[in-house]
Each structure stands twice: as structure tokens, then as C-alpha cells.
Design goal:
mainly alpha; Serine Threonine Protein Phosphatase 5, Tetratricopeptide repeat; about 400 residues; rod-shaped
Length: about 400
């Protein structure tokens, strides 16, 4: 009998349960027969007893089937799938592997695929804080470096990134104020980009102000605010204060310089051009690199070709002569060995200003006489000759 009950504990389907009960009753009936009870009864009583046993066997089998069906169907109706081991546990995701892939994609400026990589990981573990922070990193990197396909607007990109930035502010506003301020600053920048689409009345400087309110040294907020002050009215003095505050933080220095130069080149005035020279001088003295050779060429062209008259008119005021010459040579570093006429001319003019008239005269003489700067060249040669005559 012990074996029978052990088997019963494994039975789960309705028909199997009914069959099991039938087998049990048949076993009991067989034991009764083995006791040799029926021969001592009359035929009528024996027949009645057999009918009674068969009736009860049928009823019990039917009841077993009904109970089996109930036991089988009812749990299915209320079954909502397996209960997770813990509401606080997330499915296993190799965050280190995801992070490696995403960081590599960010270094390649492959922002769309970096975004998709994090989104895929978050489908398996939507509550993982480290993945959410990684997604925010992608959003901020992408917002800072949006490039548009033909027919695309800034809003087509930033509109899907901004909600993640707001969520980052909400998650970190009490626990990590620097992180929250970073996200707020990038929301302000995203609003600036949408303004370029023609979407007005978005909060831009308000977001920068809010970011600085919770993290006074935040470099993103100060640098982006400085950019906005120049782009929205060319408030150079106020912008200079913001960039100074951003640099003082010591964090994201390369970013701050790129935004500072971009702002000064955004509004191309003579005053801003002279400020670009001063910024480049500071970068040279501090050992801060320019982004690439393309940036060097653009700076040389915009400063010393497009605004050459302003530079020449303010040569004595913009920088000390030796520093200006050193900065100009720093900008020339790595450029073509056969520079355009204006580059050779300015190298001669700055050498002259720094007191090296011998070098200046040789450079002036190498400029073609039919160039557009021939008059400036002749003036320079004349000045050098006068200096030579005074100091033979």
C-alpha cells in the first residue's frame, strides 16, 4: 500500500487520477474475494453486493475524474507564469561586455548603433542602474555631436534622447548632483539645437542656470551657457566669464575649449577673432591640443586671411609679439610645407614684430611680387630696412 500512495503523489492528469482510483478499488475488491466471503452468502445477496460495489466503483471513478479535471484546469486559469525569484533581481546581463562595445562605438562616433546596443541590453534588464547610466552617456555624447542626414532636422535626433536626460536628472538629483547637472546642461543644448530648427521659446539658458544651481562648477553648463551668450547677442564679456568658470572646474577641459572656439567662430566679428588668438595662445602655453589638422587650417584661414586687416590693425594689442609669433608657429605646425601667401606674409610680419628683422626680410622676399599682399610686403621690407639702418 505504501507504494500505491507514493505513486498517487506523482499523478497529475484527470484521467490518470481516475484510473488510479479504479485500480485501488479493484485491488480492494480483489482482497475481499481472497477472503472467501462470497461463497458463504446467498446468490441474491452476493449479486446485490457485487452491484453495490460496481455502483460505488463507478461513482468514485467519476468523482475522481471531476476532481482531477478541477485540479488540472483551475491552476491553469490563474497561472500568470513563473514568479521571479526576487523583484529586485534583474536577469543576467554582461554589463562589462555591453559597456565595452558601446564605448568603442562612441569612440567611432557611431552613436546610433551605440544607442541600439544599450537599448537591446535594457530589454533584458530594464532596471539596471549601470545600463541606464550608460544610456545617458550615449545620449549626452550624441547630443554634443549631432550630424544630420539630408532632409533631417535636429529634432529628429534629439527628441528621442531628451527623455533619457530628464530621467537621468530625476534619478540623480539627490544622489549625484554632478550627474544631474550634466544631464540638465545637455537638455539646454538640445533645446538650442531645436531652436536652429525654428522651434522657439524653448528653455535654454534656464537649463544652464538650473545646472549651475546644483553643481556650481559644472563645465558643461558653463561652456554651453558661454556659447549661448555669444550666439544669442554676442555678449562676449559675459561669455568669457562662463568659459573661465568652466575651465576652473578642471573637468572636460578639451570639451570646454572646443565650445569656446566654436562660439567665437559662430559670430565672426573682429573682436571675437582677436579673442580666438588669445584662446589659442592659452592652449599652446598649457599644452592643450587642437582637435585635428582640419581645425588648424580653419583657424589660420579665418583669423589671418578673412580677418587679416583687423589682426594687422591690432597687432600691438592682441598679444605680446613673442607670444603671438609662437602661437602662430604652433598653428602652422604640421601644415603644408608650401603655405599660401598670407601664411608666409604673417610669419614675416610676426617675426618682424618680435624683433627678428633678418628672418622677416627673407620671408618678405619669398612672397611673389604680384600677390594680393604685395603692398603689405613692400611696407614690411621698408620697415625692416629702417630698423637695420638705425642698428647696423
Amino acid at each position: 500500500m505504501g507504494k500505491i500512495f507514493e505513486i498517487a503523489s506523482q499523478v497529475s492528469t484527470p484521467l490518470a487520477l481516475a484510473g488510479f482510483f479504479a485500480a485501488v478499488l479493484f485491488f480492494v475488491f480483489r482482497q475481499i474475494v481472497a477472503k472467501n466471503i462470497f461463497p458463504r452468502l446467498t446468490a441474491a445477496i452476493g449479486a446485490d453486493l457485487l452491484r453495490l460495489i460496481i455502483d460505488r466503483l463507478f461513482v468514485l471513478a467519476l468523482v475522481a475524474m471531476l476532481l482531477g479535471f478541477a485540479g488540472y484546469i483551475v491552476p491553469k486559469l490563474f497561472d500568470h507564469g513563473p514568479e521571479p525569484a526576487s523583484r529586485n533581481e534583474s536577469p543576467t546581463v554582461n554589463v562589462d561586455a555591453v559597456s565595452y562595445v558601446v564605448r568603442s562605438q562612441l569612440e567611432s562616433h557611431d552613436y546610433a548603433n551605440a544607442w541600439d546596443s544599450v537599448a537591446k541590453a535594457l530589454q533584458s534588464a530594464p532596471a539596471r542602474a549601470d545600463l541606464l547610466d550608460l544610456q545617458a552617456d550615449v545620449a549626452m555624447s550624441w547630443v554634443r555631436d549631432v550630424s544630420l542626414a539630408e532632409g533631417q532636422k535636429f529634432g529628429d535626433v534629439v527628441d528621442r534622447l531628451v527623455p533619457v536626460l530628464y530621467q537621468t536628472v530625476q534619478r540623480h538629483k539627490d544622489s549625484d548632483k554632478v550627474r544631474a547637472a550634466d544631464a540638465l546642461a545637455h537638455i539646454g543644448w538640445a533645446n538650442f539645437l531645436k531652436r536652429r530648427d525654428g522651434v522657439l521659446h524653448l528653455d535654454i539658458d534656464g537649463k544652464y542656470r538650473e545646472a549651475v544651481g546644483i553643481d556650481p562648477d559644472n563645465p558643461f553648463a558653463h561652456a554651453m551657457w558661454g556659447h549661448w551668450l555669444i550666439a544669442n547677442g554676442d555678449h562676449l564679456a559675459e561669455a568669457q566669464a562662463q568659459f573661465a568658470a568652466a575651465l576652473k572646474s578642471g573637468r572636460e577641459r578639451s570639451f570646454v575649449r572646443q565650445w569656446q572656439l566654436a562660439a567665437l567662430q559662430w559670430v565672426r566679428t573682429d573682436e571675437n577673432t582677436l579673442e580666438v588668438i588669445r584662446v589659442c595662445n592659452e592652449m599652446r602655453k598649457n599644452g592643450e591640443p587642437l582637435r585635428d589638422e582640419g581645425q588648424r587650417r580653419r583657424l589660420l584661414s579665418e583669423i589671418y586671411f578673412m580677418h587679416r586687416d583687423a589682426v594687422l590693425a591690432n597687432l600691438d594689442q592682441v598679444l605680446p609679439a613673442d607670444e603671438h609669433l609662437a602661437t602662430y608657429q604652433w598653428l602652422l605646425r604640421g601644415t603644408d610645407t608650401s603655405p599660401p601667401v598670407y601664411q608666409t606674409f604673417f610669419l614675416a610680419r610676426l617675426s618682424e614684430a618680435a624683433g627678428d628683422c633678418g628672418t622677416a626680410q627673407r620671408l618678405y622676399a619669398s612672397v611673389p611680387s604680384a600677390s594680393m599682399m604685395s603692398q603689405e610686403v613692400q611696407d614690411g621690407i621698408a620697415r625692416c630696412k629702417r630698423v637695420s639702418s638705425l642698428h647696423p
